[in-house]
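Data card: per-record layout.
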Amino acid sequence: YSAAGLECRIYVSSFDGINNTSCWTGGLQTPCATIDLAIQGTATLQYKCSSGILINLSPGTYTLDTTSLLEQQLLRNNVSIIGMRDGSRYKE
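The structure for this 92-residue chain is written out next.
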């Protein structure tokens, strides 16, 4: 990653269930209240991150096994995902 690498990550926590998904981007951990806001934020991030977005999943509803809904929403918004991390597991 370049110096802007942190900006190319989005952190998603679905601890309270899919409808209360919260997320933040970069190192500042500014919450976005819903997954829709997360997607808008990620689409904005992409302008700085031509290589795509790395998604870090905190423990909760979304895991690498249950991210298809999240991935579909991101892809519909033209977000390119370079990888997802779920604890110690990683998927490209």
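Known properties of this structure: The domain at 3-91 is CATH 3.30.420 (Nucleotidyltransferase; domain 5). Residues 75 and 81 are 8 Å apart (CA to CA).

See the next section for split statistics.
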